[in-house]
Amino acid sequence: MAREFDTFHRYWRDWEAKLKPLIRRHEAQLLFPDRLSEILKDDGSIDLSPAHPICIANAPQKAATGKRGPSHRNTLVIDGGFHLKRSAAAPYLVQGRCSLSVFSTTIRDDGGRNLIEIDAMHFDMEKADKPTAYHPIFHVQRDVDSKLDQTKLKQAVADLARTTPDKIFLERSHGLGTQHLRLPTPQMDLFAVLTAVVADFFCNGADKDIKVKTQFGAVLELLKHPSNAARNGFAARQLMAQADEIWPCPGAWYPESV
Is the CA virtual torsion 177, 178, 183, 187 positive or negative? Predict the structure, then answer.
């Protein structure tokens, strides 16, 4: 393990503790990787990615629903990665990716699971020093993530279901909606997507339980914590500097506009 990135590894492990209280109160289960896999590059930078996808089983269709049963519960799968560089102060984010897949889930009589992908999207981040023409610097596409490892995905679902991967039937989509439309977004790295997932699936504005507000506040504080090397990425800093006068006009997201 590269010592320069130890703080980020510790920061990663803090997320499970912050997510669990919100997820469990909805009778859902969280499988969160306890480590990040590393690939060191020749220039001293590093690629970090979860050892297996983050998996949330028995998730409601939305936080406000009171419905129960297989037809109203899904499996959420979040995957992605970070490309970090060293600096004198602290490592910083150069590029990242994240994907969210939603699977309709049926529990079979043998204890296995049938998962059918009903929606998927992936969030991309262009390299600020080498942006691709016509691509918003940050964007989302409604499309499946080709990098999502099927073997690891089945194992993660099996671990939550306390069964074996051979009992997991997985049907991934071959295409969802208009796959090639890139919608400009803020920087939606893996931590930002996790925050959005918790907010929309597990936090209901009409809920009077004060603990929910406190627990979600803890997630937001973690997202903004200085230990988060993805908090203020290189592309975000470049975008803010170049688009200062027209922020937050969507045109500012395109490299041709600056």
Answer: positive
